[in-house]
């Protein structure tokens, strides 16, 4: 059965990284399989900068970004000795990127549709380079990844993906070794879409589902899923085995290692899902299991957070319709909703405006009289152990001490408890919660 390997930006970000990834592909896919790659590290940010400059009508700034992008890609290809291999594919791609960005700069307007068209260059350049480096065949993911037309955060249409993927399934079963792009999709009218920042994980798992894969491996730059974000908690430890529910909650509440939408396909299709480190292939890794590993009652496995939230507060007298309407509108525009809590005291909506359209919708709601506070973050404690001992969550909350808490968020998931704090508190709070709730949690039974 087919296996899928996904390499993130840092795993393809330099010649050395690509060589390491090539060795992993040789070792893991001796009988063929599918490799999904992100853009080279930093490329998506660079294209977004170019698009933003173009939107301001600043053509020189936009072209400076594109020139850096070309130089960096050219240098990596040269170091690998693959310039001639990629030139036929890269030439038209770079020319098109230049045209799209120049067109935007001349108009002084960056549309969501144009932005996705520009972003596609990053993933596609990378996939051609990786295909050359891995001695594999490039296939464009837009042959199969059918989505709606919500540019910037497109929703995949599974039945259409499944049907389109049938020829891929056969070829891969026959031993083909293919490389394709993450992050991209195709709208019903043929325009390129993107799945949201970090969406390549979701590309890999959706392809896993559509192709009936036995296993999806996510190759990144850490030793698997850790007990906390290592940039705030250097002593965070790898989690060898975790449940899909834990992984889903952790990613939903902000752990960047797995895209928030990437767990659902594994839940439906049941393939093996592994997170491993390209820099240290032999180091520990995380296996995400449909059946929960045993955890002690009350045990917290990990802490997650996401900053950049806005809170909209509605008085009880406003009723439910205005916040519900706001939630619908924001969601349609691609905002992430972290909570919608209603009580006799009023209603609280916590969102993160992840797309420019969502930021505009939020500004409109504020202009229309909604009371908005920005600068909030969501923090979540996650663990199967909370299912067995929900009261433990309350004990863990005591660890907050005198922290100002903006609201408690409970949801359908019983493997997490989440709350809102001012984002300026994260630097202190996350290490403290990790120490109190994860490191001092009871060991698994
Ligand atoms: P890739 O480019 O491979 O997709 P990402 O940068 O998207 O990699 O995700 C990996 C990063 O996620 C890590 O380098 C780490 O900084 C961050 N991260 C945040 N929370 C966690 C966590 N709980 N476990 C592991 N990594 C995490
Ligand atoms: N290249 C895209 C991003 O930077 C997608 C991904 O890396 O998953 O968001
Ligand atoms: Mg990622």
Automatic annotation (TrEMBL):
Pathway: Amino-acid biosynthesis; L-methionine biosynthesis via de novo pathway; L-homoserine from L-aspartate: step 1/3; Amino-acid biosynthesis; L-threonine biosynthesis; L-threonine from L-aspartate: step 1/5; Amino-acid biosynthesis; L-lysine biosynthesis via DAP pathway; (S)-tetrahydrodipicolinate from L-aspartate: step 1/4. It comes from the Bacteria. Keywords: Amino-acid biosynthesis, ATP-binding, Kinase, Nucleotide-binding, Transferase. Its EC number is 2.7.2.4. Transmembrane segments: none annotated. PROSITE patterns: ASPARTOKINASE. It catalyses: L-aspartate + ATP = 4-phospho-L-aspartate + ADP. It holds the Pfam family AA_kinase. Residues 1-277 form the Aspartate/glutamate/uridylate kinase domain. InterPro entries: AceGlu_kinase-like_sf (IPR036393), Asp/Glu/Uridylate_kinase (IPR001048), Asp_kinase (IPR001341), AsparK_Bifunc_asparK/hSer_DH (IPR042199), Aspartate_kinase_CS (IPR018042). Belongs to the aspartokinase family. This is Aspartokinase.
